[in-house]
Amino acid sequence: MQHQLTRDVKVGIIGIGAMGKGLVYQSHITPGIRCMAVCDEKIERCISVLKWLDISYAVVSSIDEMNLTIKKDLVAICQDAQLMAKCDGLDAIIEASNSIGSAGENSITALKHRKHLILMNSEIDLIFGPLLLQTAEENGVICTSCDGDQYGSMKHLIRDLRQWGFELVMTGNIKGFLDRSSNPATIIPEADKRNLDHRMCVSYTDGTKLNIEMAIIANAYGLSAPVPGMYGPRAQHVQDVLQCFDFNGILNNKGPFVDYILGSEPGGGVFAVGYCDNPYQQGMLAYYKMGSGPYYLFYRPYHLCHIEAMDTVLKAVKEGQALLQPKYGFKTNVYAYAKKDLNPGERLDGIGGYTCYGQIENCDENISQQGLPICLADGVALKRGIAIHEKINLDDISFDAGRIDFELFLQALECSNKRQALSRHD
Do the strands 270-275 and 295-300 form a parallel or antiparallel pair, or are they unpaired? Predict the structure, then answer.
């Protein structure tokens, strides 16, 4: 793949919510990048952010109009993301919407039209990841997770400790608060205080988003979940991690793993644990105030979301480098669990709703009872009653077999199986 682009990277952004607004702003101030198209079902969001930044724009409704607008050096606004995916005037697309099925379709189209794809939509990053990766490879472009989210920060820690010669033991998230019963009604005061969409705030609070993020990093590095949903012990500070986990026991049973700590400082940070038993290194690490080993903690006290995102765009387009990709296929997935007692015939309402939350689980331990991925749990009806906190399986639901999200997931599952089969033969 040749990467000789010397001009500014022209990027389009899908989804102009709280994150999308930040991405538009950051692309406006980052050297080497220009946002040339924005898309949202609520077109007033696009207009509002561009007026805020005093950027000239035109609303378009066709590919020809979009291409002409970009050629005129104006930012194109559209409601139909397929226009952005197919137009000639963009190098890369950042998918930052909160949709799943349509976002998957738009992403496939963009990749087939040889646009680099940067995923700030963690749901499709997880549930369609192997399919998106294969499609990107087939079309000579990059599809990657985006920096700025927790898994991007974890990747930097993992890269560093491996470069230094440590064995990766675990990587983890620092979660401030967990309430699996949270719903769009109870969350209103907290969501409004933080200017967050109510369902999005629920997905943070009930742990679903955390589990999705940890599944993304697990699938990139071949890590396991120690138990469904992980342990998540409470801690006062991230430095307590070495006392929170039975590393020998988990490693012997599961191998390197993902997990999190709850209620700890520094809020918003991430961590990784590495192993080193070399006497010389252990002596020097003790001198460097890293402890006596053989387990060593490394942490990053922040992740900066949209502020860190543009580096991923530049490296994808100009250097052909991806931040994170699901190279191990579906090593893990995140399955739906009942948020309350559910009745036969009741319809699930997906991520951030009233009916279910998501927990990470190792896929190779889930063969006999295939769980319902939380990313597919919107609008499906239950065949039987499900007790609160009980896992919901695919056999427990009825759904339209022609739904695009299920169709794309099945394709992603096939891509995952192929990738895993090839890795076993290598």
Answer: antiparallel
Cα–Cα dist 363/361, whole Å: 6
Tokens of 366: 């889930």
Compute CA 47 distance to the chain's CA centroid, rounded to the nearest angstrom. 27
Chain Cα centroid distance, residue 331: 15
pLDDT over 60 at 387, yes or no:
yes
DSSP codes of every residue in 42-70: SHHHHHHHHHHTT--EEE-SSHHHHHHHH
Pairing mode, strands 378-382 and 397-398? antiparallel
**pLDDT per position as a tens digit, 37-62:** 999 999 999 999 999 999 999 999 99
Task: List the beta bridge partners of residue 274.
Answer: 168, 296
Token pair of 137 as six digits: 């490879």
For the chain, list the domains and their CATH numbers.
9-148+306-319 (3.40.50.720), 150-300 (no CATH), 332-425 (3.90.1210.10)
Going by C-alpha positions, the residue among 95, 102, 141 that lies closest to residue 120 is: 95
